[in-house]
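Please, structure for the following, as tokens.
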Amino acid sequence: MKDGEIVQIAHLVRNLDATLEKYWKDFGMGPWDLHTYGPHNVTNTFYRGKPATHTYRIAVKWFGPIQMEVIQPLTGRSIYDEFLETKGEGLHHYKLYYADCAKAVADYQKKGYTVVQSGNIGEDEFYYLDSEKNLPGAILELGNAGSIPPPEKHYP
């Protein structure tokens, strides 16, 4: 991976199970790795500058060098809830790889992009940027693609 490359595209939904069933039955997309995240396994979690306790389920699958992620918020407040309330389900973000996330975040902040949500899952760091005013229709996430714990299960 090279700094600045897209490593993930994410789809935000209200019902993860129904969406995965559609992806599988209609397009043959699978298998998916499923995870549930929240305070029990995500550290340094912040939402709009304050510690966060939201929970969410995800499913991920690699298509060559790009990971597809499907996200369903469960509890608490996050940028996922904001998006569903204002835009509904759909394409949520692009994740850009950076080996040194702290440097990348600082560089983007100099350009006027602030972090609106962040955290760590295992060795993986993630930072969502407030990018919609400068890049309408797209939320950018920065991350190091670090290792994460194994999935809880697979679909199908």
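The two ends are 29 Å apart (CA to CA). The mean pLDDT is 96.
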